[in-house]
């Protein structure tokens, strides 16, 4: 069944929409006598009391041709009640744009929804309501705990046990402690700062493991790291100069 819509003149007879029917509305929007695509165009359905309405946008092309399809599945559950079966729904077409041309908002027809009596209506979902929610109780994790002392002592013994191996490797590679006075006399500040910064870094790590937190450790560690880099570069340069001169 097809009906022709006339602007500002609603149809005299209601349009029936059965459970297996599809309502198809096609129209062409114009500005003056030329077709033009509006900013928005939609079909507005309202119950007779005006307490509930829902809009369905038209699919509009640049040529102004618009189309919208509607079935019972697209309707809210409230529109499928028995009261709307008799009174019908008011269907209006709304067209608007940003131009100076006045918009269009006029009833087009009455939609009569005919539901299948043998098919129960789907249950209405509870609408979302914004309001006070139950209080949220945050449960924070407990502070990290240190491992048992026995594990720490085992790893400490393992580290200390490598020191004799390290000293033996240095002696095997030709450690020359007699060059220390010459190194400190050639560049005393760089060697002293380099060795002191290395010892200081180890002390900072020990304090971080025992008492300090991360915010206390990072500033001190940054200063010692920069000092070790600058002084170590100068100290190693001095060692290289003695090596090239053959005095190391």
Automatic annotation (TrEMBL):
Organism: Fonsecaea nubica
Subcellular location, principal: endoplasmic reticulum
One Pfam assignment: Ribophorin_II_C
Coiled coil: none
Highest taxon in the source lineage: Eukaryota
Transmembrane intervals: 150-177, 189-208
GO CC terms: oligosaccharyltransferase complex
Ribophorin II C-terminal domain mapped to chain residues: 140-243
Name listed for the protein in its UniProt record: Ribophorin II C-terminal domain-containing protein
Protein keywords: Endoplasmic reticulum, Membrane, Signal, Transmembrane, Transmembrane helix
Keyword Lipid biosynthesis: no
GO BP terms in the entry: protein N-linked glycosylation
Annotated membrane topology: Multi-pass membrane protein
Subcellular localization: Endoplasmic reticulum membrane
